[in-house]
Hints:
With 143 residues, the protein is an all-alpha fold. The chain has helices spanning 6-21, 24-30, 38-71, 77-103, 108-142.
Amino acid sequence: MNWSPLPPAVAAVVAVAVGVVRRIPPIVVESPIEIPGPGALSLYTLGGRAAAFVLVYGLLLGVAYRVGRRDGDAIDAGATTLATAAIGGIAYLVASGAVVLWLGPNQRWIAAVGTLGSAAAVGVELAIVAFAGLALGRSRMRG
């Protein structure tokens, strides 16, 4: 059976975006730009979360749905899901690690463990969304 590289590729892009979006408050606080106040920081954070939601549940789910609908049983959903989890988790780890290194945390071990745990969680989340999209696409193709 074949696996589709499209959902893992989209998951990589989504994971990088999510990795940066989750770190918006420290990025804004540590950057030299001046923010108008706490309301602006809240607005940036909520806007970033909305963008991450749209990327994960709109873009990734939509791409996985289209792959499942187009290729159906010719695609190995397990292999595609596993690749999505691995690539998404690694992309998130790299993006988050780069942001954490740029910010220069005081407690490197705590930041490293937190980033590893978050990367695993994001990889699993992206895999579940990709699997759901593939399964939904397959079911719509048959019925």
